[in-house]
Amino acid sequence: MNSRWQPWSLRELVASRMGPAQALERSRARIAETDGELCAWVVQDPDPQPSSGPLGGVPIGVKDIIDLAGLPTKCGTPLRADAEPAEVDAAIVTAWRQAGAMPVGKTATTEFAYFSPGPTRNPAAPGHTPGGSSSGSAAAVAAGHVPLALGTQTAGSVTRPASFCGVASLVLTHSRFTMDGVSALSPSFDSHGVYAAGVSDLALAWSALVSEPDPALTAERPPRLLLWQGDAGPEMRAALAAARDRLVSAGAVVDDFLDEKVIAELTAAHPVVMAYEAARTRAAELAVASVLSEHLAQLLRTGASTPEHEHELARRTMTEAGKRVAEVMAPYDAVLAPAALGPAPAGLASTGDPVLSRPWQALGLPAVTVPGARSPAGLPLGLQLVGRAWSEANLLAVGCWVETVLRPTG
Amino acid sequence: MNSRWQPWSLRELVASRMGPAQALERSRARIAETDGELCAWVVQDPDPQPSSGPLGGVPIGVKDIIDLAGLPTKCGTPLRADAEPAEVDAAIVTAWRQAGAMPVGKTATTEFAYFSPGPTRNPAAPGHTPGGSSSGSAAAVAAGHVPLALGTQTAGSVTRPASFCGVASLVLTHSRFTMDGVSALSPSFDSHGVYAAGVSDLALAWSALVSEPDPALTAERPPRLLLWQGDAGPEMRAALAAARDRLVSAGAVVDDFLDEKVIAELTAAHPVVMAYEAARTRAAELAVASVLSEHLAQLLRTGASTPEHEHELARRTMTEAGKRVAEVMAPYDAVLAPAALGPAPAGLASTGDPVLSRPWQALGLPAVTVPGARSPAGLPLGLQLVGRAWSEANLLAVGCWVETVLRPTG
Fold first, then answer.
1. pLDDT over 70 for what percent of chain A?
2. Does the pLDDT of residue A205 top 60, yes or no?
3. Interface probe with A: pick from B88, B192, B390, B395, most Cβ of A within 10 Å
4. Which partner from A131, A180, A311, B315 sits 20 to 30 angstroms from B219, CA to CA?
């Protein structure tokens, strides 16, 4: 990896005591240098306002389905090409501002955070997709434009780009923060996320966001993990097997997740509910589906024609499956799983497959992507840790431990 | 009850084949006749657009936290006094339009759907509160202004006004329809609701909304019910006891809900999460709390100072309690419970207490209010039926059966 694409560590920035003006200058310089090629940004704020707080004015990117006062929210769709500037910040932006973050602009998203790609390229894998839908945020962090960037996940929209771009991500427990001011796709699944250079940086960001102690400082005991590999491809399986060996050597317990049936049920139910809800959330867009991407139009049409009883059955399936997964996970700290099927697919036409995130997202569980692994060809591979609901701090502590153990040593 | 305040049956309207123009004329005449006194409406649409669909142009009211294209969404707060007209309908409005409903205006709400009352009076109990927060919608249906009106419920904002005003209501399973275009208070609990003259009318409306068979036609078998009376006052307890006798005589099984501990846990956890989320959803309003009602300002301040671990504990408590309640409810069709502590309190200063809805709303369960009972002084008393998640049709079928059995006979 070329130094042009070196991520920018939040922990180092905070430790350096660089002021907001200097941090902004550095962010703008990095963006100016490489975003012509990368296309991670839709628009930059000409006059970002720093705020006080533990993060002390750190520049952050905001996915362009999240309202940022003074800039339009274009949602990656021609339907919003002439959108007016948002009047107020989304609630999650307010929360990050209170933590001391300084939003510097909007990052590219797929159309309404579904599958139709934007222009963004993958700084860690030239010629390969950055993943989606939070494409611009993942790429901006991977390229060192900003130390933090906000995403959202409905299926695998935070975790998969993190894996493809080689950065860390946190998906928050569903409904942990309100989605007020965020364009909805499937409200039962739409969750907040954030990218950073490493899990340790995410831990610091989280502690600032919720005013709680830094989870990195509590990461001492080797965790108990449940390994699930799903249908991951050979490169990802190899990375997972190597990780297992190193984690066990370092003292972790790693058992196998054996109930494939419950995962299959969740994986099947998730897209049913997602389409059903998207057709209702995006009813206005469904009425003009011919101007949408075929990906999105197809989703909305599917959802609009889903019979009520099929939707209800999918909901009940998720409820029952959720109980079983909670029982299986209870003796463990987290599930260790692939963050994507493999490295980023070549080309920009597809953002890849979210299938390995669907079962966990169906349950609204928090997930951390740990970067660092590479395919034999040198492409990034992420591992995800899935935690119990409302346990972000514990999950980040586990993530810090795992990140440290797996860190390349030489 | 004076005929000025006679509700307008949806089933009768649909059977009458009255066209949209005539129905609109009748609605406007009823509003003109009594709304000067009642104050159920914030604004009427000067030019409502009928749409085709099974409901065939029935006039409906829309609570003024729900966007209706062309009219402002004022949320019952001075902060929104100069709000611009909404550009697009909320998703739930689109769904009702597709069912053939014709929105005719916005109904009064408490401030941001919390406790601070609007100007609305109770047509069924002069001098008493109509309840809140969906005050205007409940009153408009009770007064026969419209056969249907939309509400929302975060604690007891649909069920309690139905009980106080003597009308039927349905609270939908949480996240059954997206809240897109609805001002959020506590997204984990915010749910849609609808009022009608009777449960049978709600069944017809539901079948139109979801394009499924009319639940009233499936209401044949006597249901199995679990009775829970909470801390209801003596008038409500008497109504509940009388209902139990009649339902058992008609063939229903009515057992007692014995796990008061799980209810207490849910009742305690609900306001913790509600305040926590409201402080984040309404962060912009929290910043100008001095212009808000003291009720709302207090809620937001409480939520802003809730420690993260307290919020997490409340969430976990709800998850565990939800499993226990689901097990207890599994052999039954519904819980039969008071819809409010008693009749509408005198005066307009308070909208009453939502405490008897909190445990069910914490779990996101659907609830139907069955009107018809009266206190010794002649004030309305509602009974609520709480169903399993995603089972609105079954719940409405049970509600129709209960309504028929309890109907006054002479």
1. 99
2. yes
3. B390
4. A311
Is A63 catalytic? The answer is yes
- Check A27, A133, A134, A186 and give the catalytic one: A133
**Which residue ranges form the domains of chain A, and what is each CATH number?**
3-220 (3.90.1300.10)
What is the secondary structure of A126-194 as a DSSP string?
A: TTB---SSSHHHHHHHHTTS-SEEEEEESSSTTHHHHHHHT-EEEEPPTTSS--TTB--S-TTT-EEEE
A319–chain B Cβ distance below 8 A for any pair: yes
Q: Which two tokens stand for residue A292?
A: 């949408």
Active site residue A188: no
The answer to whether the Cβ–Cβ distance between A390 and B281 falls below 8 Å is no
Q: Given CB atoms, is A254 within the 8 Å cutoff of chain B?
A: no
State the complex-level ipTM.
0.76
Cβ pair B91:A280 closer than 8 A? yes
Distance from C-alpha of B365 to C-alpha of A251, rounded to nearest angstrom: 44
Token code pair at residue B283: 């962060």
pLDDT recorded at residue B220: 72
**A85-133: pLDDT as tens digits:** 999 999 999 999 999 999 999 999 999 999 999 999 999 998 999 999 9
- Among A79, A180, A309, A316, most B C-beta atoms within 10 A, so best to mutate, is A180
pLDDT in tens, B272-331: 999 999 998 898 899 898 899 999 999 999 999 999 889 999 999 999 999 999 999 999
Report the helix count and the strand count for chain B, using DSSP H and E. Answer: 13, 11
Residue B345 has pLDDT above 50, yes or no: yes
Q: Is A211 on the interface with B (CB under 8 A)?
A: yes
Q: E strand or H helix at B410, and its extent?
A: none
Task: For residue A228, give the nearest of A265, A274, A190, A260 by alpha carbon.
Answer: A260
Flag whether pLDDT at A57 surpasses 50: yes
Report d(CA A177, CA A235) in Å as an integer: 35
Alpha carbon A351 to its chain's center: 13
Q: Tell me whether A177 touches chain B (CB under 8 Å).
A: yes
- Report chain B residues whose CB lies below 8 A from the CB of A312: 390-391
Angle, to 10 degrees, between the axis of helix A294-304 and the axis of helix A260-281? Answer: 100
Q: What does the alpha-carbon distance between residue A264 and residue B403 come to, in Å, rounded to a whole number?
A: 42
Query: How far A177 CA sits from the closest chain B CA (Å)?
Result: 7
pLDDT category, A2, cuts 50, 70, 90?
low
Residue among A9, A51, A63, A357 flagged as catalytic: A63
Residues of A numbered 49-108 whose beta carbons fall under 8 angstroms of chain B's beta carbons: which are they? 88-89, 91, 94-95, 98
The nearest alpha carbon in chain B to A181 belongs to B281
As a whole number, mean pLDDT of residues B40-51 equals 95
| CA-based nearest residue in chain A for residue B90 | A281
Which residues of B carry out catalysis? Answer: 63, 133, 157
Least confident of A245-259, B205-219, B232-246, B379-393: B205-219
Whether residue B315 lies within 8 A of chain A, CB to CB, comes out as yes
Residue whose pair of structure tokens reads 């991951």 in the numeric block: A232
**Confidence check: pLDDT of B1 > 50:** no
- Which H or E run contains B368? strand B367-374
Inter-chain Cβ pairs, chain A and chain B, closer than 8 A: 81
Q: What is the overall mean pLDDT for chain B?
A: 95
3-state SS class at A289: helix
Q: How far apart are CA B278 and CA A87, in angstroms?
A: 20
With contacts defined as CB-CB under 8 Å, which chain A residues touch B323? 323
| Triad B60, B66, B72: Cα angle to 5° | 95
Torsion angle of alpha carbons B16, B17, B23, B29, nearest 10°?
-30
From chain A, pick out residues whose CB is under 8 angstroms from the CB of B173.
315
Of B226, B266, B239, nearest to B360 by C-alpha is B266
Nearest residue to A123 (alpha-carbon basis) of A33, A61, A205, A240: A33
